[in-house]
Structures are given as C-alpha cells and as structure tokens.
Design brief:
This protein has helices at 2-15, 19-32, 36-48, 53-77, 103-116, 121-139, 145-161, 163-166. The protein is mainly α.
Length: 172
C-alpha cells in the first residue's frame, strides 16, 4: 500500500509541473483551508434558499463537524506529510504537519453529501468541486492518496449519519 501511495502521489504531483494546473491546485487548496469554501457555500445557500435555510445551516454544521473530527484523528495518527518525499517540494503551505486524514477531503466530501441532498443546485455544483479540491491536495504534494481517501470516507460517513437531522428530523 505504501509503495502504491507514493507512486500515485508522484504521478499526481507531476501534473503540477504545468503552471496552469499548479495554479488551479493551489487556488483550490487555499479555498478549502479550514473548510472555508464549504462554510461559505453553506451559508450562501442558507441566505439564497429561504425555503431550505434550516437544511443548509444544518449541512454547514455537519461539514464543520466532519472537519473537526478529521483534525482530531490527525492528532492521534500523526502521519507526516509527504514533503520532499514526493520527489519535489510541495506547491502549497499547510496549516499543520500531519496528513492523515486529509481535512480538505473530509470537509469536501461532507459538503458533497450534505449539500448534494439539497437538489438541484447542491447536487450539480458541489460534488465536482469537492472532487477537484480532493485531487488538488495530491497535485500540490501535501497528501498521499490514502490520506485523501480516508478523509473523503470520514466526511461522507459523517454527513450521511447526519442526513436525518439535516432534513429536519431528530438525531437517531
């Protein structure tokens, strides 16, 4: 698994040698820092969609909660970031030195599941953007693919577990 992780990271990191790809990956990584992009999307959805304001706000809370959960897991696992191990220096700075799971992927997947339930806008726009944020973390060289996969799983499961609450029902 470790060898495959490194090979996949190297292949994705090589995409960052194209200045346009590197710029887009940096921008997506920056926007996803501390789940900021997803919190703005959720709050914008709540402001624009009065009919489903409560669901947007609850989805935003689920996304923030998933992000916090990933930060807690990071403190326990303490896997170092790839850094120069990927064959090149990272293209983006990071807020912390631990990589597992990717908090960017966690909040992106949580937003995709939570906001994706708010059709049609959430389902059409958020998942592709979430996928791009996830891939950007490998292109900039700060996460292994397994970090991103674990983060996406954590985010998706967190949002799915909160789906009933988000829809206005109680917590199971």
């Amino acid at each position: 698994m470790d060898d495959m992780d490194r090979r996949l990271l190297s292949a994705l990191r090589d995409c960052g040698t194209d200045r346009r790809v590197a710029g887009a990956a940096r921008a997506l990584s920056w926007a996803g820092e501390h789940a900021a992009l997803w919190l703005v999307v959720g709050l914008t959805g709540a402001a624009a969609d009065r009919e489903r304001r409560s669901a947007w706000l609850r989805g935003t809370a689920l996304t923030a909660g998933a992000h916090l959960a990933s930060m807690g897991v990071k403190r326990v696992v303490r896997r170092p970031r790839p850094g120069g191990q990927a064959g090149a220096e990272p293209l983006a700075r990071t807020a912390g030195k631990h990589s597992f799971p990717s908090s960017h992927a966690t909040s992106a997947a949580a937003a995709a599941v939570a906001y994706g339930a708010l059709r049609p806008v959430g389902a059409q726009l958020v998942p592709p953007l979430a996928a791009a944020v996830c891939v950007s973390r490998m292109v900039v060289g700060v996460h292994y693919p397994s970090d991103v996969a674990a983060g996406a799983l954590l985010g998706a499961v967190t949002a799915r577990l909160g789906a009933r609450w988000m829809a206005g029902g109680g917590v199971r």
